[in-house]
Here is the input.
Amino acid sequence: MTMYWQEVSGNWILIPERPRAIIHFLGGAFVAAAPNVTYQWLLENLAREGYLIVATPFINTFDHKAIAQEVLITFNQAMHYLYKRVFPASDFLPVYGLGHSMGCKVHLLINSLWEVERAGNIFLCFNNYPAKRSIPFLEAVLDQVVQFNPAFDVEFTPSPEETLRLIADYYPVGQNLLVKFRSDTIDQTRPLSEVLIRRFPDLTQIKILKGSHTTPIAQDFAWQPGQVFSPLDAVGQFMKQEFYRDLTVLKHELLAWLTPVPERTW
Here is the structure.
């Protein structure tokens, strides 16, 4: 069975021949609008191992709660399609959340604010910075506005502090994998891990891997050397090997964490 991306009710879906589980994927703030393109390598490799991918695009705004609600509605429409058109009505697959950067926050809000069934969640490069630090040039603009109106402020809803409190009070999913990359300068896995370890000390796992904040969106690009191998060709081959190695390690770590899910025979 050849896999191909299909758009269903605003989601991008990839269906392997014998799905063993469903992965609901949410990308980072500025690359989440086309996850089937920006995260193609990672998602397609997970699908080849039997994981059905539902990637829900979203556009970033200041109201992250509204984003989470819209994402959940869109995802549920995909699930309705799958169980009506693809799977037997009695055969329900476990659902795992997989998020990158802001996608992690959206997953955490979905699970903390609404009743959803998740077998576990994977958080890559969790980011929960305030608006001033997350959006380029916003801090400089706001500083100028505040000079004229000291009471003026712009922040995400919920704020970073409110988000961690919601997780501490309401997040119900015990099985969690947190992945941090060594060269990631905007990662905030540590404060999230502190909250989750307090809630689920024996079930929360943390992995620190080689790579950066953009490792999950890297692609195994095809570099074609010229007839004469040049220094530029050497650089291109080196970059390909580096990207591919970090992506491959990430893929193996995700699959190792997911391996308790048995392969289906139907």
Notes: The beta strands are 6-8, 11-14, 21-26, 51-55, 95-100, 120-124, 176-181, 204-209.
